[in-house]
Amino acid sequence: NKRRGTSLAAAGASLNVSFFAMLLEADSKSMRSMSGSRRNSGSSLVSSSSASSNLSHLEEDTWILWGRIVNEWEEWRRKKDKLLKELIRKGIPHHFRAIVWQLLGNATDMPVKNQYSELLKMSSPCEKLIRRDIARTYPEHEFFKGQDSLGQEVLFNVMKAYSLVDREVGYCQGSAFIVGLLLMQMPEEEAFCVFVRLMQEYRLRELFKPSMAELGLCIYQFEYLLQEQLPELNVHFRSQSFHTSMYASSWFLTLFLTFLPLPVATRIFDIFMYEGLEIIFRVGLAILQYNQTDLIQLDMEGMSQHFQKVIPHQFDSCPDKLILRAYQVKYNPKRMKKLEKEYTTIKNKEMEEQIEIKRLRTENRLLKQRIETLEKCHPILYTEQFVSNLQTQLEQSRLREAELLGALKEMQDKVLDLEKRSSCLPDENNLATLQEEVKQMKLRELETSQLHLSESPKKNAMNELQDKLMTVRLREAQAQAELREVKLKALQLESQNQIHSKLIGRNDQERSALQDRLQMVANQNKALQAQLNEMKRKQAESDCKSKEEVMAVRLREADSMAAMAELRQKIAELEIQKEEGLIQGQLNHSDSRQYINQLRDQIAELKNEVRQPSPHSHKRALSHIQVSHLSEMLAFMRVANLPWSGHPNKFTSRSDRAMLRQITRNLSYISDSTGLGDHVKCQLS
């Protein structure tokens, strides 16, 4: 039945669901008939096989239930989703995992399955990387042992096919463990389809991208949950510089397949196929909560050793305990969505800063190249003397600017005064008309002076006043002309002031640009130095991690070698015990046969003595002989481990059982004929 179930699990992915359920029902009927035949096999075996029969009934009910679930899958997903979730959390039976995983991932009928054979004929740029990592995938599992084993070959095929389907991801170390688990349950075509669905629908593709942005998000969310639910442990981790990525990255990338034993990790993978990455967060927090008291007392090295050696084997015998603890952890999907938004905003800012840094680096590189070219063409430039000359020129220009501003202010004051004065004077047009009127008046005065030579002195005084008025008007006209000239000069000074101010502004801009460039170069040098220090620190951490991994691998190899030596020693001891048991059994068989023949001869002699005609004279001697022979037979029965009734079934051969029946009949005859039956039975008891 186990072999039949295994073959059924391997072929179930390619069959229709209804046909699969029909096979399950036939298998369950055969199990019922076999269990019925076992119940009717005999009363002597009922008590010893009661526990196994109960277990077979439980397995039979599980098979029937999961066969019904597979046959009515769509109805169970629509109407009995909660019950299905509970059953999956309790564990999918081994023989049903192939078809149930395909149904959970909706990978039964995928177009990419038809392309699988064509993909294997193509060449992938990731083949060398895949070949290098295949030997490290489940090295202790029988299916993947050996360089040319079937497991390694089909694992290479699936990883190569996916690297051709998704060239952006290609191949990522760690995904081979997930594919290896799928290949333990189903053929390679079905495993390829399920893996494609996992990458597309279960956030694994974002985890395995070269940027690994999804892994950073998972670490960010896990750190928040750790800080919220286990604050003391979180403070201890930070004090010891024990970062979350040092122990939790493999949890998310391999889904605990490299951290926990395979049966426990498979149970977690069952739930992952239904609920997604939520179970990874829950199990991780449950493990930390279970080990909190031990981890707080350890330093960084002790914690790393505890994670490698102690924690993986805590739930070997009871994976249900880990699952129960995992679902006692508080998990809020809405809060996780908010954390995802926060992380995306932080990452966007970091991306903008990185883009700005890249832009500044390129600009800095171009400026350096330009400075180098300028230094080659003009070696005098960019020296200390050149900078000092620029500073002196800048100071002189500032002094000239101050002088020009003072002169400009004085001229503006003069212009205001002149404008006030000119506001009281007539306009230029009125002045021209007045000059014409004065000329006409002078002409009329000449005419009248010729006609009237003898005028009164009053008229002479009027003429003088008119002459004075004309002179004043002429002076005003000259003042206005001078005012126009002053205005022109003021405009020229303003234009010159603007030109000088522009020159000063340009000099200021050039000086500030040079200072900004110098400051920027200094800041970039500091940033580059800080990045170099950070890279050195990361390199040191990676070296330490690699050394720790190498030490851990060596320790595991030493443990495996010691375990192999112990197993070989046990095998040798068992072989020796087996040979000793065979030899002892042969000796016991030969000795018992010889002794039975001797007893047969002695019983024949006793029969002859009993048949003699004078039994009264020999009764006492005969009784002593019988007692001695019966004592010898008693010793034989004790050696043979037989009660007085003498069950013949205890002997292995048919001839021994027949001889024992004959000895029993002879004993009854001798005890009844001599009247010593009670004495013999007392001795035998």
Description:
- Residues 336-421, 462-609 form a coiled coil.
- GO terms for molecular function: GTPase activator activity; small GTPase binding.
- The protein has 685 residues and is an all-alpha fold.
- Among the domains are: 211-331, Ypt/Rab-GAP domain of gyp1p, domain 3 (Cyclin A, domain 1), CATH 1.10.472; 386-443.
- The protein has 27 helices and no strands.
- Mean pLDDT is 75; it is low at 1-55, 452-456, 613-624 and 638-652.
Count of helices?
27
Report how far apart the termini are.
48 Å
Described by strand count, sense and barrel closure, the largest sheet is: none
Mean pLDDT: 75
Q: For this structure, what is the CATH homologous superfamily of the domain at 211-331?
A: Ypt/Rab-GAP domain of gyp1p, domain 3
Number of strands: 0
The low-confidence parts are 1-55, 452-456, 613-624, 638-652
Choose one word for the global shape. rod-shaped
State the helical fraction: over 70%
**CATH arch. level architecture of the domain at 211-331:** Orthogonal Bundle
How much is the radius of gyration in Å? 55 Å
Stated plainly, the CATH topology of the domain at 211-331 is called Cyclin A, domain 1
Given this structure, which CATH class of the domain at 211-331 is correct? Mainly Alpha
User: What structural category characterises the helix and strand content?
Assistant: mainly alpha
Order of helices and strands: HHHHHHHHHHHHHHHHHHHHHHHHHHH
| β-sheet strand percentage | under 5%
Transmembrane segments: 246-264
Organism: Oreochromis niloticus (Nile tilapia)
Domain Rab-GAP TBC: 91-276
Keywords: Coiled coil, Membrane, Phosphoprotein, Transmembrane, Transmembrane helix
